[in-house]
Structures are given as structure tokens and as C-alpha cells.
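Checklist before submission:
- one chain only
- standard amino acids only
- sequence pasted in full

Submission:
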Amino acid sequence: MKSIRLAILFLFLSVLAGARNFDFPDIRSSAKDIDDFIPEGWTLMDSVSGDLNKDGFADKALVIEYDDSVVETRPNGCSRLDHPRILLVLLKNASGKYTLALQDNSFLYRTGEAGLMHGDPYEKMDINGDTLSIDFMRSRGHMSYDFVFKDDDLWLISAYNSYVSTTGTIDEWEFDFVNQKAIHILGAVEEKDIYEVHSRIPCEQLKTLDDLKMPQLWEVFQHVFI
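Returned file contents:
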């Protein structure tokens, strides 16, 4: 019995050590081929193109995922065995070369987060004009974040968060951080008893991707997280 307890303790300590010791790679600063930005042991998961810095050249946003499972401590304090992910923003210049403008190691959900148990909450990215959108699924809901690239960073300008209960009641939030406005939509879909509440967002300055750390950590209003 003592040996079993020691084995469990050793496994627990090993998990904690793994959570502390995983190091994200330093991505190369420039290259002509996007494959050159993907380190050994990582795989390209998603890629979108668009002119993020409005200079007339098609930039790239990439999602890459680590091939192996490791224990990673997430910004919400949870330690999980999963595949880490990185978001990269690459800016293209007139010579056709890409420059690494941003590397974010924490914002993207991993498989099994957002209440999906073993499902993958990551849905897609899009670039429309100079706006990068990142969409996630959640248990009985959806989240979307819109960023613009400015001053070498991604700034959150709007977001959407929805949830549908098992009884068909909807609970949606639309956030406009540029104009500091929020719309709360809620009610029973089948009964068509839906109403909106408009509020002012108590945040004077836009938040960056790094400020957010990961989804559902910023309490915009009391008990309302984005």
C-alpha cells in the first residue's frame, strides 16, 4: 500500500514538473516560406491570409500545434495534459518575405477546454479587411473575438458570446469595445420572448491579446466573462 502511495506521489510530482518545464520555441524572425516559421515537432493547424497592416500585401495568421502531449499550466491556473498551440502573425513586405510580428502562446483554446470535455473548441480564423477574427465553440454556445493589428500588437475591438440552455433559453452578449457598448440578448426562443439590454462597457482602453491571456478570463461586467 505504501508503494502505491509513493507511486501516485511520484506521478503527481512528475505532472507538476512537466507543467513548469515546458518551453515554447522562439520562432524565427523572417523567411519567405511560411513552413520556415514552423519549428520541428510542431504542425500547421490553420492558416489565413489578409492585409492586416494595410500596406497592400497579404499577411498571414497561423495556428501551429505541438505534436506531443505535455502538461501545460494555463492562464486560468489549470494544469492539463494536452497539445500546446501558438498563434503567429506574419507580415509580408514588397520583396515577398514574411516577418514575425506576433507570437502568442496562451490565448488559443486547447482540445478539451471551454467545457467540451474531449472535443476541440477551436473553430476557425478569418481576416476581413484589417480585422482578424478567431472563433471558438463551447458547450452549448459560441465565442468570437475580433482584433485589429496596430502598434505591433492585436487589439480587441469586438466580441460575441452565446449560450443556449437545454430548455431553449438564449443568453447572448455582443461587445463593441471601440464605442464601449454592449448588447445583452436573452429570452425563450420558442416563445419568441426575447429582449435586449444595452449597457456601457466600463473600459476606457482597448485590450490586447496579451492582456486577455485566454478566453473567459476578463470579467467585463459582474459575472460576465469574455
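Reviewer check: The chain has one domain: 26-225.
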